[in-house]
Known about the structure:
Blueprint (H helix, E strand, L loop, with lengths): L1 H16 L1 H21 L3 E2 L2 E2 H31 L2 H5 L6 H31 L7 H22 L9 H16 L10 H8 L2 H14 L8 H21 L8
Antiparallel strand pairs: 1-2
Amino acid sequence: xxxxxxxxxxxxxxxxxxxxxxxxxxxxxxxxxxxxxxxxxxxxxxxxxxxxxxxxxxxxxxxxxxxxxxxxxxxxxxxxxxxxxxxxxxxxxxxxxxxxxxxxxxxxxxxxxxxxxxxxxxxxxxxxxxxxxxxxxxxxxxxxxxxxxxxxxxxxxxxxxxxxxxxxxxxxxxxxxxxxxxxxxxxxxxxxxxxxxxxxxxxxxxxxxxxxxxxxxxxxxxxxxxxxxxxxxxxxxxxxxxxxxxxx
Length: 248
């Protein structure tokens, strides 16, 4: 346990010292929210547009942080040989991966809290009415996307192309799922694709508990789909995750 806490502290120090990680992973959803609320008017999902955009950015931030941020971290360490060296140290690999996962979840939790504060300051968006349900929803989403983030590392072969690959996944997924606004006017084929993506169900759950005052346990379909995607990611990660740089 002592080694785990030491590694967790180290992970946090390394993350916040990295300007690239702080901007791409932590700050980008906040900047995007500020920009979108400056140009969006009217209503989204039956609420003021700023409320709907805040909910959307919570979902996008989850995918960007727990999925892309985690994957970029692990891919870079694998290709630089850091993961290989970790296995030769006294630190158990399970404790190391747990520390990495907990660290990225801490970053996402701080990001979500910052989004609520920023929304309140800029547009007087409300605080969560059912805080426990909001926390559970974001934790479930973070866990599901973290599992998928570990899984995708097995398919990205190089550090140089990793950022481009992950952005090609995250940004279209956010667009098709509704992070940047309602999808009801999209062509049918795009809505069908969006309905198959995990972010769609996370956003539906966030909209229910934050925008409409619902409870997470009243959204069994969203919970089941997110849990299913998380389990799928873990299963794939167990087969594809590598500790050593890819060859060829």
